[in-house]
């Protein structure tokens, strides 16, 4: 019997060591299958002997669903933290501290944004876990917290120990969970609360939580002198602490550490909503003491919030240049990361459904890298909350809308005012044709008074036309006409961006221009050629391919060229195609497009084009009704290719 227990203990220590390496240090030293082997030999031993040690890792998840949460009184009351939001308030707090403790040092830690949890150990074994609750009484979450892999089930220290930390969900765990979850989590923080306060510990286990430990509430028979000692002790017991702890002597140091973290906080895998600054020396802390609510010796510096809640007043449906009708949420104005937010995106009908948001309800909004913030989900239903109904007809022109998947479109491309105005404004915008003075308002006036309907119409506007418009004097009209004229010579990439092909932004346009070098090559590119480009997915590639096969687009482009638009070709990416490098082509017969187009294609791939067939000719590209050149090629044994073969060679 003793032998079995000894063997079990050895296995448990071994397994817990690997757990620690994996979940706390993020540094596994054995493979998953080796780990499984150890784990299942423990399971076997337990099954054979009928003995299960209380701290066995096989007991992290029990199969019992609890009936309710038991309330539990905390042995040590939990305090909240006093907060500041700017450095001058932080400085005055630090000065106050220095009045009492002259040379005191400050410890700077992350302020973890999760759910506070208190964990108790006895004889080195995990005993219980409790939520913060109201600070005096919390809920017993022993079974739930036991499933968290970074919570050690046994520790070297054998006295009674109570630690405090934060239950967290890493961004990685959050994304993984949402990939398969039927009910998606709104953010990692809600993910933690719902997982720990869940009566089914299996559900807690599924969320793959973490525990970051930062405080010691009780430690029998052990004296600590400082936060630093206390922190190091927690590390030595196998707790995860976030690998961040700084000791500072001066305000400048504290501020520079905070600024440093503020810059990188979004790239961390966990949510932190600020930093906590604590007096390091514990004797000094005692002298400084507490208020009724929080310690005077600690201060939280809160970062600017990246997420807030506000009321979604209504949804506006707007028609963009492609005819797509998108929902824009009009919000009750709210401050977020230093800006007043009044609008946010909702993407499409499915997005609205998935997020369960309603007009007249409170919603979560988050600042992302986009200019316009995003709605994350429903925060709270209010009395007059109502379903968001997509429109049946176009809000601009009244045409019946058509639906493709979750997207709504107005197909009245040429006579839908908002669409046309948006298309022309985009065409004239800074990264496109860069025509000064063509604001939305001016373009709308062109539409209403000068019958401008196509992008190409811009180039036939005269000064006299413009003078017919309200508030257009000589100078202004002349400036715009000049600016239009000047814009005609344009880089290939800007031209591409200006066309407003679905999802083709500045970066993609540049990439296309660099890769294809000139317009003709792009025009004749096949789907596979476009797909080969970095960062261009199939959907965008299809948009591009389809765009150049639409008759209206081609005739518009031709009209642009006729009005004098000339392209400055970009340097190609320098990739040489060995099928063309140093090879001489001769073109003959009738091809699907003009010969000059094929000539440019061959040149852009590094080949040469000659006028007559000789021994030096490598290929003859022959179309229909080819005559003497084809005969000559046959005579000399020169390889004869058709358009299809040429296309293949270009890949
Ligand atoms: P708040 O919830 O904004 O009032 O902030 C106070 C809470 O921050 C505390 O009750 C702790 O649960 C939590 N907290 C997160 N990180 C730390 C830390 N490093 N030190 C102390 N408390 C922290
Ligand atoms: Zn319309």
Your description of this structure?
With 651 residues, the chain is an alpha+beta fold. It folds into five domains: 2-59, Helix hairpin bin (Helix Hairpins, Orthogonal Bundle), CATH 1.10.287.610; 71-302, D-amino Acid Aminotransferase, Chain A, domain 1; 307-409, OB fold (Dihydrolipoamide Acetyltransferase, E2P); 421-559, DNA polymerase, domain 1 (Orthogonal Bundle); 584-650, Rossmann fold (3-Layer(aba) Sandwich). The protein is built from 24 helices and 24 strands. Strand 15 and strand 16 form a beta hairpin. Helix 1 (2-24) runs antiparallel to helix 2. The radius of gyration is 34 Å and the shape is elongated. 30% of the residues are buried. The mean pLDDT is 90. It binds adenosine monophosphate and zinc ion. Residues 80-81, 109-112, 116, 166, 214-215, 276, 300 line the site of adenosine monophosphate.
């Amino acid at each position: 019997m003793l032998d079995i227990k000894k063997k079990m203990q050895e296995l448990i220590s071994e397994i817990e060591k690997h757990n620690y390496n994996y979940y706390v240090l993020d540094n596994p030293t054995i493979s998953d299958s080796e780990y499984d082997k150890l784990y299942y030999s423990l399971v076997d031993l337990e099954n054979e002997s009928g003995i299960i040690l209380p701290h066995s890792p096989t007991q992290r998840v029990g199969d019992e669903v609890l009936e309710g949460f038991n309330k539990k009184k905390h042995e040590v009351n939990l305090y909240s933290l006093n907060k500041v939001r700017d450095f001058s308030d932080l400085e005055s707090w630090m000065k106050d501290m220095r009045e009492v403790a002259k040379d005191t040092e400050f410890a700077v830690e992350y302020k973890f944004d999760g759910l506070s949890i208190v964990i108790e150990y006895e004889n080195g074994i995990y005993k219980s876990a409790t939520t913060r609750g109201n600070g005096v009484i919390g809920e017993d979450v022993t079974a739930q917290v036991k499933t968290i892999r970074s919570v050690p089930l046994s520790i070297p220290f054998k006295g009674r120990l109570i630690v405090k930390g934060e239950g967290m969900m890493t961004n990685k765990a959050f994304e993984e969970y949402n990939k398969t979850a039927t009910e998606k989590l709104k953010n990692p923080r809600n993910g933690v609360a719902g997982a720990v306060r869940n009566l089914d510990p299996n559900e807690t286990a599924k969320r793959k939580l973490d525990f970051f430990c930062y405080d010691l509430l009780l430690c029998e028979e052990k004296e600590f002198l400082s936060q630093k000692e206390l922190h190091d002790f927690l590390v030595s017991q196998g707790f995860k602490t976030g690998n961040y702890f700084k000791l500072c002597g001066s305000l400048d140091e504290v501020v520079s550490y905070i600024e440093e973290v503020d810059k990188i906080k979004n790239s961390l895998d966990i949510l932190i909503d600020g930093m906590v600054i604590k007096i390091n020396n514990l004797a000094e802390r005692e002298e400084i003491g507490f208020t009724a609510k929080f310690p005077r010796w600690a201060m939280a510096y809160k970062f600017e919030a990246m997420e807030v809640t506000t009321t979604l007043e209504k949804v506006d449906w707007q028609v963009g240049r492609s005819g797509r009708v998108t929902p824009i949420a009009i919000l009750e104005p709210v401050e977020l990361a230093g800006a007043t937010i009044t609008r946010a995106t909702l993407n499409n009908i499915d997005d609205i459904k998935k997020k369960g948001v309603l007009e007249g309800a409170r919603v979560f909004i988050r600042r992302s890298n986009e200019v316009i913030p995003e709605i994350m989900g429903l925060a709270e239903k209010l009395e007059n909350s109502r379903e968001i109904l997509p429109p049946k007809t176009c809000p601009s022109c009244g045409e019946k809308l058509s639906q493709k998947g979750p997207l709504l479109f107005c197909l009245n491309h040429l006579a839908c005012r908002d669409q046309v105005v948006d298309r022309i404004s985009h065409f004239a915008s800074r990264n496109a044709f860069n025509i000064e003075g063509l604001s939305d308002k001016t373009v709308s006036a062109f539409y209403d008074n000068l019958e401008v309907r196509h992008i190409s119409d811009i180039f036939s506007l005269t000064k006299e036309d413009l003078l017919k418009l309200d508030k257009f004097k000589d100078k202004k009209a002349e400036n715009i006409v000049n600016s239009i004229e000047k814009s005609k010579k344009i880089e290939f990439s800007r031209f591409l961006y200006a066309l407003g092909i679905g999802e083709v932004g500045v970066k993609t346009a540049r990439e296309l221009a660099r890769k294809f070098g000139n317009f003709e090559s792009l025009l004749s590119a096949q789907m596979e050629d476009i797909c080969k480009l970095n960062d261009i997915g199939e959907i965008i590639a299809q948009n591009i391919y389809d765009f150049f096969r639409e008759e209206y687009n081609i005739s518009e482009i031709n009209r642009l060229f006729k009005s004098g638009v000339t392209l400055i070709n970009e340097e190609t990416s320098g990739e040489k195609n060995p099928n063309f490098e140093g090879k001489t082509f001769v073109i003959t017969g009738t091809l699907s497009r003009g010969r000059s187009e094929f000539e440019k294609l061959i040149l852009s791939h590094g080949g040469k084009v000659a006028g007559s067939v000789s021994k030096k000719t490598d290929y003859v590209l022959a179309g229909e009704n080819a005559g003497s050149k084809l005969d000559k090629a046959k005579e000399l044994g020169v390889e004869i290719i058709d358009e299809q073969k040429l296309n293949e060679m270009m890949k």
